[in-house]
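User: Batch of two.

Assistant: Item 1 of 2:
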Amino acid sequence: MRIHLIPLLTLLLVSFPAGLAQAQFKEKTADPSELELGEATPQRWQIGITVTAGRSSCQGVTGYVPVPVDWPEQEVREVEDDVSSTAKVSYRKVDDAMKLMVVKIPSLAAGKTANALVTFEVTHRSQLPPEGTDHYVIPDKNKLPRTLRMYLSTSPQIESTDRKIREVAKEIGADKEKAWEQVEAVYDWVREKVEYKKGPLKSAVATLKDGFADCEGMTTLFIAICRAKGIPARTVWVEGHCYPEFYLEDAERKGQWFPCQIAGSHSFGGIPETRPIWQKGDSFRLPDNPSERKHYLPERVVVAGARAQPRVQFVRRAVGK
């Protein structure tokens, strides 16, 4: 018998769904000096899984837990682990875009508990917008690598080829000559037309239709419109929140990602965010079912054999130094 466990996750983000990816964890930018970073205090987070067998033993337990990785604005290092002898921990990339902790527990006796907990130190620095923006251009999609072209395509919840999305994309920023001004016009339009309201995840089309959404819905709409205009864009997932990034190139065709706060205070091209980045992207393949894609990649456990479901607790909590 094969049991798939996706319980209520402890300390989960926003409504935390699923997502996809980018070229590499530490990406090259147009000019390192253009990525202006603020100060941030390192934070320590314990991440992992605890599994307790019920009245009977269980076999072949595999857990998948997203963990933070390095980005130009974020540094991550492993500082401590609490891993039971019955558990084995390894790491793997997903879609060349994010990092998963893979926990394997071959066998767990009835009533016994196995821990696979790792503490990471995460330093996420705020980003300042560039001083000059006139030299940025929209990239030529035919010259982009596959790992960037994916951010011009549709994703779960981001219907960038929908007729209504394409219509508004054509109208917004039509009077703007500079690439930066065109993206900023999309930013201003979404913030003006969509009222922020907490609620369930909405797709870009639903957000456009309803005229209200939370940070995820506003982010999906901004990204969908950007992609429809030929501007790569993706989702950034931080603790309890998400926001979009867009990609432009300089005159020498060297590219850079820029963040913006679509829901909340006005921050375009830079962002005062220092919470840990958990994932970037919005179209991830499930590790045990590659044919299925999710808007965000959730924690997940698969149990190959058990008479009764084990108790599973996913852990993501801030801990003291």
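Item 2 of 2:
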Amino acid sequence: MISSTKKFIGIPTEIWIQILLALSFFLARVIHRDSSDIQYFRLLFYANYLVAAFGINYFLLPRYFYTKKYVRFTIGVVVLLVLVILVEELILEKIYFPNTRRGETFPSVLIIFIHLLPMLMVFVGFKFAWDAQRKQTELEQLRSIVAESQLKFLNSQINPHFLFNNLNNLYSYALEQSPKTPQIILELSSLLRYMLYDCREKYVLLQKEIDYLRDFVRLQSLQIEDRGVINFNVDGEVANQRIAPLILIVFVENCFKHSTASLSDQIQIDIDLKVRGNQLKMYCANRYSMEENIDSLSKGIGLENVRERLNLIYPDAHILDISSDGGVYKVQLDITLTDSGER
């Protein structure tokens, strides 16, 4: 796709292409069919047609057609065509062919249209197609900017959301003067280091993301203590894969929130990651008390955030299924990963 903003020797590409079209039509008209002589007087006839073509392209199209003033556009085209006919019939024909076509106004007009319309169709068609391509490019760039801005906004929500949850827990342990507080601070600082310094790119190594999940699970395990069982398993080759940062953490975090908010003991959380080629399958399940209202947990900012991020980053490359059955909350996420060569 040729960009209309590109220039050659300071002249936009669009103008160069129209110059080439004009030269092609000019050569086809000035070279006589029966000889190689160049009939330069035909340049004036041709220039008359060019005025109509460029008048439509650079005056009528942008001022009336693109602003949906179709009646004015039609009137403008008709006026230009009439002017072309009058100039050729009343001026050019009388100068170069004074003894021909007299008394044959209708056939003369028909001949003019036969010469004029193909050129107008080519020039106006090219301009219309060029402008449509340019508008489409601008629309795609605008969509990209909007999507990128939305993604940055969603990313900016992650850190405050994460900090809010974990600082509350840390505050509780500090009040109780728990001996685990220093270890919790250490684990939390490791998580923050990853979030602040390793998540600046659109994609990160899957191995780093998994290490981050492990640190998070270890941090939460310190708080659960002996009130339940946490299983975290990874299967498959992850070294050469990349993933959008902080996509998986929301589901892991929700597992702990669902369980700890409704159960005081017998907590069970299962987190399984399987990588097969460039396919990642994540399964999370946690027990919760059906007597407790956890609807707000499944509709919080974190889950809404990650749904939007998945739709933006992996629009046709993910499947997310969330269900609740018999006191078990389940999440199944399948993602087509980005290999290490893509950024």
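DSSP finds nine helices and ten strands in the chain.
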